[in-house]
Amino acid sequence: MFARIYKPSKTAMQSGRAKTANWTLEFEPKSARTPDPLMGWISSADTDAQVRLTFETKDQAMAFAEHHGIPFRLVEPEAAPKIIKAYADNFAFGRKQPWTH
Fold first, then answer.
1. What is the pTM of this model?
2. What are the residues whose beta carbons fall under 8 Å from the beta carbon of 74, sequence distance 6 or more?
3. Domain 3-36+43-91 CATH assignment equals 3.30.160
4. How far, in Å, CA of 33 to CA of 92, rounded?
């Protein structure tokens, strides 16, 4: 049983940063998922893959894993680049592309 501690990234389906403040502890799958021959649903015999715990800080997640003897891998989040844009740049004289309707 091996766990991964990470901070979830923003999903493409939302414009805000909801559910990205907490750290998540998730177990790595032990076996591959296989399709059910009758229905075609994906199934797995590994029930640990269904467990997802959230913590407010990275230290709380690491302390929980160490207390319970769970080996873990910490994935640090990458900082998103800040792209500063101004509406006035659309009408700048030195604009690279012409502005059209």
1. 0.72
2. 5, 6, 58, 62
3. yes
4. 54
